[in-house]
Amino acid sequence: MPLAPTINLDARRTIEKAFKDLEKTVSAGDRISLQHTTLDDVRKAAHLVEDELAARQSLRNMRRLEPLFTGLEYYSKTIEVLCNGTPYMPWIWAPIKLVLKISSDYIEGFEKIIKVYCQIAEPLKRFQKLNRAFYSDKDIQQTLAIFYSDILRFHKEAYQFIRRSSWRLLFLTSWGRFQRRFEGIIQDLKAHEELVDKMAIATNIAESKDWRKELRQEMETWRQEQVERMAKEETEEVARQYLAITSYLKVDDSINAKIFDAIASEAVDSAGTSSWILSQSEIQAWLRCHPSSTFILLHGRPGSGKSVLATQIVQFLQASQQSLVMSHFCTYAYEESMDYDKLLKSLLLQLIRSDKDLIDYVYDMLLRKSRVPSSKIVEALILDSVRASSLDPSRTRYIHIVMDGLDECDQATQSKVTKLMKRMVSAAFSSGSTICKVMLSSRSSPAITKTAKQSQIVCLSNENKHLEKAIEAYALHRLSLLEMELSQPQVTPDDISDLSYRIAKRAEGMFLWARLVLDYLANNMFLQREEVLSAPEALPRALQQFYEKILTQITSHFDERSLERMKLIFEWIAFAKRPLRKAEFRSALAFSSGNPDTGELAPQYLFDKCSPLIEERSDSTFAFIHVSVREKQ
Q1: pLDDT in tens, 4-52
Q2: Which fold has domain 254-460?
Q3: Cis peptide upstream of residue 612 (ω within 30 degrees of 0)
Q4: What predicted TM-score, i.e. pTM, was given to this entire model?
Q5: Hey, where are the domains in the chain?
Q6: CATH of 557-633, one of 1.10.10, 1.10.287, 1.10.101, 1.10.3470
Q7: Where in the numbering of this chain does the DUF7708 domain appear (predicted)?
Q8: Which among 81, 101, 82 has a CA at the least distance from the CA of 37?
Q9: For residue 108, how far is the Cα from the chain centroid?
Q10: Between the CA of residue 393 and those of 25, 166, 185, what are the distances in Å?
């Protein structure tokens, strides 16, 4: 009874790894159709495609592929031993059938793909002459396994290219990069063809064992270096293109990050007070990677904490890593954030940032074609990018977009942004492979609700129970920091708990009001326990009246000159093109005195005098504690 042929386990593992890598790339439906495909099925499919093209008067010579089919047939015999009892064998030819069928609908792409497939035939010719006795040689088996790995890597690149949504749109700009990858694989195949020849010649030489091992190691090192070099060159090219796009659009993408970080820091200061939003039923449905609940409005009064909730939602989505997360926060503090053109460009950059093909496409559409990035062109690029955003043919791509503070923009901008969001949702749906989900967080605005008809609305006024608990927790945290001071007028821990509860009740869902009360308690002098405990009831409930009380308290001992200087500080914050850093602000105040020769900056304590209506952010810029302060000026 003949002995079973020996198998190089490393070679088997190389084949298994390549198979699994391609298998997980292919969609479930395609996987079923590929696993039982024979080489004869592929030949028949090629002839069928040829007939269909002829009927469309686009005849292409499919006989060009015959050397490839012949080469695969001979090569398959060399790896029978390695593939016995596994599903691996059909995958060296089966993907060709699918690639031909899909790409034949786009002749220009089809022709280029056929040409690169034909190039694989050349390195496979060697297997027609290889002695069958060599197939069981362990050293040669490892090299044969590399052929398998390269062929499947080739199929993977081709499959991903033609299965990507809107692949025709990206073909002309992306093909160059894919062709370089294909050429690298073919170069590797040719190098291993030569290695097979050398190893076959040396098979019968006893002293060649070490030499063959050294030769194979050198080849593996060369192969790895080639892959790393190509990856590095590609990464550098994409980074260069992205920077060029950013420069061409003339948008500072860091502004959105600064706004986000400033708002998110408020959540850090009041940890645990906003996590409830993630369990709210409508929000939870929107967060899920599911086609339902694609458009939702989060409405709330001024000071109800909408922006902080929005940052928490963004951070939750980013941490889950299940979707592409985009966000934009509008605020008076940064005029650019409310500009429609700049907003569009920010969204486009977020869409393409992690996608090499989309970066190449936008680079071509704007810079290579020297187009002015008008709103109309950028809108079109955004919609194209949404349609083409699905990278993985086997999975639906989800995009979550969070827009906050849209009510701070003018009515026309509110309407245009809302319409664009609706179009993005529709564009994603039409692609068949992407779902776009949008959340607009703002005060109720006719321009938004009218445009976003039939959208789900989450009103924070209906979430008083959650908001009360959150505000109570926030108040308890703030008051606990004052416990030592408050204990002196005999305020007990039970008093602090009761005070936190009453502040939350009286706030009626307005975090800002609670914050102002707590700032009042932190910044004033109290002789008796009752003065502290009566604060929630003694202070105005309306924000405007509260601001007036604070302003009166601050300015009660100001002379006319001090009042003018405070007014000047407020005006700089309200109307500056961007928030001023402390050094800039001090310089601006110094020169506002009218003396151009002044050599001293305005003192820092001026800003302290304006507290608690203004605050210094973590980046040393100044802003009102809330946009509603600006509205009351």
Answers
A1: 567 788 889 999 999 999 998 888 888 888 888 999 999 999 999 888 8
A2: Rossmann fold (3.40.50)
A3: yes
A4: 0.80
A5: 9-247, 254-460, 463-539, 557-633
A6: 1.10.10
A7: 69-207
A8: 101
A9: 32
A10: 7, 12, 22
